[in-house]
Design goal:
This protein has 96 residues and is mainly α. The chain has one domain (2-93). Strands 1-2 form a two-stranded antiparallel sheet. The termini are close together. The protein is built from four helices and two strands; from the N terminus they run βαβααα. The chain is 47% helix and 4% strand.
Length: 96
């Protein structure tokens, strides 16, 4: 489980392509309407599943307290992990 953030660290001696990726990430968060602090899940292969994570963009969750969303994300991650171990979910839906 991870949390969206536009507050990315400033690094010294970094290739220019990483600066471009940083700006691209921030603009994507803005375009998608993802507020800072919103949880998201990544697969063990560090894949982002748009459909799964769109759950956290529902109106009632966008205004929910941070700790409530964090608890929902942890529960969803545990459930996806259970499904994966049981052989019932593709690996792209699982965060261990």
């Amino acid at each position: 489980m991870h949390f969206a953030s536009r507050d990315l660290p400033e690094l010294e001696d970094v290739p220019s392509c990483l600066y471009e990726a940083r700006e691209s990430c921030v603009s994507w968060l803005d375009e998608a309407g993802v507020p800072d602090g919103l949880p998201y899940l990544l697969s063990p292969r560090f894949e982002y599943d748009v459909v799964l994570n769109s759950y956290f963009l529902e109106a009632n969750l966008l205004t929910a307290p941070w700790n409530s969303n964090a608890n929902r994300a942890r529960a969803l991650a545990r459930f996806c992990g259970f499904l994966h171990v049981a052989g019932g979910a593709p690996i792209s839906f699982v965060k261990r």
